[in-house]
């Protein structure tokens, strides 16, 4: 029993020990679970605090449309109590808008089916609250299979900020568009460069200036407005603007639309690191500046060439310019003037040079002249004029002109010579009046309006006008009417008015003649004068008229005597031909042996008779040719002729004379001589006369040349010899048919009819004849005859 109790005790002890162990373990497990629950509760409390402070609230939407959301979110939706189903989020005028709810249902359905997340902005009715909902499939831990978790953000402030920023953005965009439009419409090239200084934007004026297709093309190609666009060229201005962060300006040349222009380029740095630029065309401004400078230089050069002295003072009364005549007039040296002396010092220097009027109160006089700087009268031109009488008889005209900038311009004109000329003019006028009154001619000066201004005593006495009448300066029409009674034909009085009007209005010189009733004759003349007036003169030509009539009667008598002489010579020539024909016939019969054989001496005598008869017959023919037309052009038988043949026939006719004097006769008939229209006989006689003249003037053994040629317009005949030649007097009268006969160069007596006849025949053909000769050098005669 004792053993059983002992075993039982042991067993009970073991059981109790095990129970204690289990209890301790269970206590440990309970304490650990308690600690875990406490940690979980603390974590849940922390999460709940985070959720309460989070800007977003969660809402679970199950597949059957039931929703789980906190009361705070229900307040955001403006609903109380919290809705149980999704459809309850819109309840009349509370909750979200029905359209927004319908769109939200579609987004939730898509998230449930495809697991696609979404975002949706909704508005709460009756409130300014704006909510942003982000949705997605619910995780498994939420134990909402097929459900969707919606995170709702209060975006009211964000939407207000977005609206504000959108308004600012719209305003900025409008300003940008306006600025872009302004830049695009600007007439000057404008551009923008990025931080790398490459072109990023250009306007239409830039595109047009560089002749690009459009702005994109210009930017893509990097077309620069100014040539030489390297880092050392125009881009250096942009680099300097970017680096120094200050606006840079530089004048650069450029070629725009094919014209060379000068541009002022402005580069403006921007906060973005880029550089904006624009170019102003200053070509016209530069040309205007250059023109103004050249005008100033030309004006000063012109002022130096004036006879008047010119000096200019600035607003501070210092001298800025004076010309050379001013320096000479007032004896001022360039070294002293280079210091730009003041007005008062200049006046004092003039006084030292004795070039100012003598005045008692010089300081007061100088102060009055100092007021010239402010003496401009707005109602006048502002100029002040004075006359200075200097010692030594010098007269100066002084003009003071105040300038708009407060300066003063002074002009000093030396009028000493004008004063002297005025005095001399008065003397001259008195001399002229005395001269006019004592002239033999009658003179009257009429003004441009036809009124008589000046007359002499001869004019008044000739017409018998009263001095009182002339003192009224009558018009020429009234004067002509009063003078008509003095003329043999009163109607001729209108000639006076016509002549005066021609001289004063038409500025032409005209004249005429009239006869007075008393038998005198006067020659009128009207001459335009430089001052616009007209001078009318009358000259008594009664004596010259009588002499002229006598000379005319004598001339008529001489012409009648010449006609009688010409007729006598013609008749005598005809009368001479009859005995010449008989002498020639009988001499030819004797030479032919009709009277029997003749001795050698008799044959010589008969030959001499025939030669003399031939020469005398030729002279008679020449005389008849010169006299039968009474000085008129001879009648010609015009037809197409071969001048080569005519020249050869003339040369053959001259051969016997050439042989008798043993002359070297050269004939050059060129093929270009050709055909012409003319009288073959007359042209042959021309050549024969020229050859005869050459034979007569050439001694034995001499040389004579006959040359002919031509061109398309005319034919030429040249006869030259190496004879004794002719002096100037003989050449002058070689073609005069009435000249006295000369002793020829060969010692023979010649009537000199050949050359006058040749000239007459040549001119009848419309040609010309020219003679050139020098004593001892021979003679050259050239004839040109037109082909038509």
How would you characterize this protein structure?
This protein is an alpha+beta fold and 788 residues long. The protein folds into six domains: 50 residues; 101 residues, Beta-Lactamase (2-Layer Sandwich), CATH 3.30.450.20; 96 residues, PAS domain (Beta-Lactamase, 2-Layer Sandwich); 127 residues, Beta-Lactamase; 120 residues, PAS domain (Beta-Lactamase); 152 residues, Histidine kinase-like ATPase, C-terminal domain (Heat Shock Protein 90, 2-Layer Sandwich). Helix content is 46%, strand content 22%. The strands form seven sheets. It has a five-stranded antiparallel β-sheet with strand order 2-1-7-6-5, with helices on both faces. A hairpin with a 5-residue loop joins strand 16 and strand 17. Helix 20 packs parallel to helix 21 and helix 21 packs antiparallel against helix 23. About 1% of the residues have low confidence.
Please tag this protein with its features.
5-stranded antiparallel sheet; Beta-Lactamase; single chain; 788 residues; alpha+beta
Range of strand content: 15-25%
Radius of gyration: 67 Å
Compute the separation of the termini in Å: 197 Å
CATH homology group of the largest domain = Histidine kinase-like ATPase, C-terminal domain
**Protein structure class:** alpha+beta
Give the second-level CATH assignment, the architecture of the largest domain.
Answer: 2-Layer Sandwich
Number of E strands: 29
Topology of this structure?
Elements: H1 2-53, E1 56-61, E2 67-68, H2 71-77, E3 90-91, E4 94-95, H3 98-114, E5 118-123, E6 130-137, E7 148-154, H4 156-185, E8 190-193, E9 199-202, H5 204-210, H6 215-221, H7 235-244, E10 248-256, E11 259-269, E12 275-281, H8 283-305, E13 309-313, E14 319-322, H9 324-329, H10 334-337, H11 343-352, H12 362-370, E15 384-390, E16 394-402, E17 408-414, H13 416-437, E18 442-446, E19 452-455, H14 457-463, H15 467-471, H16 476-483, H17 494-504, E20 510-515, E21 521-528, E22 534-540, H18 542-592, H19 600-627, E23 639-642, H20 643-660, E24 664-669, E25 675-678, H21 680-696, E26 703-710, E27 714-721, H22 728-732, H23 754-764, E28 768-774, E29 778-786
Parallel strand pairs: 24-26
Antiparallel strand pairs: 1-2, 1-7, 3-4, 5-6, 6-7, 8-9, 8-12, 10-11, 11-12, 13-14, 13-17, 15-16, 16-17, 18-19, 18-22, 20-21, 21-22, 23-25, 26-27, 27-29, 28-29
């Amino acid at each position: 029993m004792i053993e059983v109790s002992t075993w039982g005790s042991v067993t009970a002890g073991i059981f109790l020990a095990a129970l204690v162990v289990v209890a301790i373990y269970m206590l440990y497990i309970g304490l650990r679970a308690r600690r875990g629950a406490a940690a979980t509760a603390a974590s849940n409390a922390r999460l709940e605090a985070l959720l309460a402070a989070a800007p977003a609230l969660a809402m679970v939407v199950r597949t059957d449309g039931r929703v789980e959301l906190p009361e705070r979110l229900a307040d955001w939706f403006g609903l109380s109590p919290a809705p149980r189903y999704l459809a309850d989020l819109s309840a009349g005028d509370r909750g979200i808008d029905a359209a927004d709810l319908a769109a939200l249902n579609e987004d939730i359905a898509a998230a449930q089916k495809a697991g696609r997340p979404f975002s949706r902005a909704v508005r709460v009715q009756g409130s300014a609250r704006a909510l942003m909902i982000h949705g997605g499939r619910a995780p498994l831990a939420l134990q909402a299979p097929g459900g969707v978790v919606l995170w709702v953000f209060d975006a009211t402030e964000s939407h207000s900020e977005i609206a504000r920023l959108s308004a600012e953005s719209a305003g900025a965009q409008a300003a940008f568009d306006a600025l872009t439009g302004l830049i695009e419409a600007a007439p000057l090239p404008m551009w923008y460069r990025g931080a790398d200084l490459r072109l990023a934007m250009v306007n239409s004026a830039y595109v047009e200036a560089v002749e690009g297709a459009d702005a994109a093309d210009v930017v893509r190609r990097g077309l620069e407005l100014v040539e030489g666009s390297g880092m050392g060229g125009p881009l250096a201005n942009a680099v300097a603007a970017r680096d120094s962060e200050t606006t840079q300006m530089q004048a650069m040349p450029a070629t725009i639309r094919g014209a060379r222009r000068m541009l002022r380029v402005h580069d403006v740095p921007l906060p973005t690191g880029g550089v904006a630029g624009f170019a102003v065309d200053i070509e016209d401004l530069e040309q205007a500046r250059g023109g103004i400078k050249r005008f100033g230089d030309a004006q000063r050069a012109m002022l130096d060439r004036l006879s008047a002295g010119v000096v200019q003072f600035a607003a501070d009364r210092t001298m800025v310019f004076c010309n050379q005549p001013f320096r000479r007039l007032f004896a001022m040296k360039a070294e002293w003037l280079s210091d730009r002396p003041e007005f008062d010092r200049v006046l004092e220097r003039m006084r030292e040079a004795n070039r100012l009027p003598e005045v008692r109160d010089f300081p007061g006089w100088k102060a009055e002249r100092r007021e010239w700087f402010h003496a401009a009268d707005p109602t006048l031109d502002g100029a002040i004029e004075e006359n200075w009488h200097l010692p030594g008889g010098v007269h100066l005209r002084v003009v003071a002109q105040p300038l708009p900038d407060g300066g003063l311009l002074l002009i000093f004109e030396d009028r000493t010579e004008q004063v002297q000329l005025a005095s001399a003019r008065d003397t001259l006028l008195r001399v002229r009046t005395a001269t006019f009154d004592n002239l033999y001619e009658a003179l009257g000066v009429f003004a441009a309006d036809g009124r008589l201004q000046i007359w002499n005593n001869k004019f008044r006495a000739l017409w018998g006008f009263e001095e009182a009448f002339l003192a009224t300066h009558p018009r020429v029409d009234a004067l002509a009417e009063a003078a008509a009674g003095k003329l043999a034909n009163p109607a001729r009085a209108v000639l006076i008015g016509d002549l005066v009007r021609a001289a004063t209005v038409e500025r032409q010189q005209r004249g005429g003649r009239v006869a007075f009733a008393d038998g005198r004759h006067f020659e009128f003349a009207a001459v335009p004068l430089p001052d616009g007036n007209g001078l009318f003169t009358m000259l008594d030509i009664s004596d010259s008229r009588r002499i002229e009539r006598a000379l005319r009667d004598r001339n008529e008598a001489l012409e009648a005597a010449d006609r009688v002489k010409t007729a006598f010579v013609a008749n005598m020539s005809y009368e001479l031909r009859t005995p010449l024909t008989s002498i020639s016939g009988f001499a030819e019969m004797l030479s032919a042996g009709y009277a029997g054989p003749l001795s050698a001496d008799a044959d010589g005598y008969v030959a001499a008779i025939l030669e003399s008869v031939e020469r005398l017959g030729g002279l008679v023919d020449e005389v008849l040719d010169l006299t039968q037309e009474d000085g008129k052009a001879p009648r010609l038988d015009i037809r197409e002729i071969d001048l080569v043949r005519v020249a050869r026939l003339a040369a053959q006719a001259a051969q016997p004379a050439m042989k008798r004097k043993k002359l070297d006769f050269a004939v050059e008939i060129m093929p270009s001589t050709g055909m012409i229209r003319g009288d073959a006989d007359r042209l042959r006689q021309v050549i024969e006369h020229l050859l005869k003249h050459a034979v007569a003037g050439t001694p034995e053994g001499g040389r004579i040349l006959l040359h002919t040629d031509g061109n398309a317009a005319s034919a030429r005949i040249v006869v030259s010899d190496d004879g004794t030649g002719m002096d100037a007097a003989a050449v002058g009268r070689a073609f005069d048919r009435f000249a006295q006969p000369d002793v020829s160069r060969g010692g023979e007596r010649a009537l000199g009819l050949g050359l006058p006849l040749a000239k007459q025949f040549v001119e009848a053909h419309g040609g010309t004849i020219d003679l050139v000769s020098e004593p001892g050098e021979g003679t050259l005669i050239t004839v040109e005859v037109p082909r038509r």
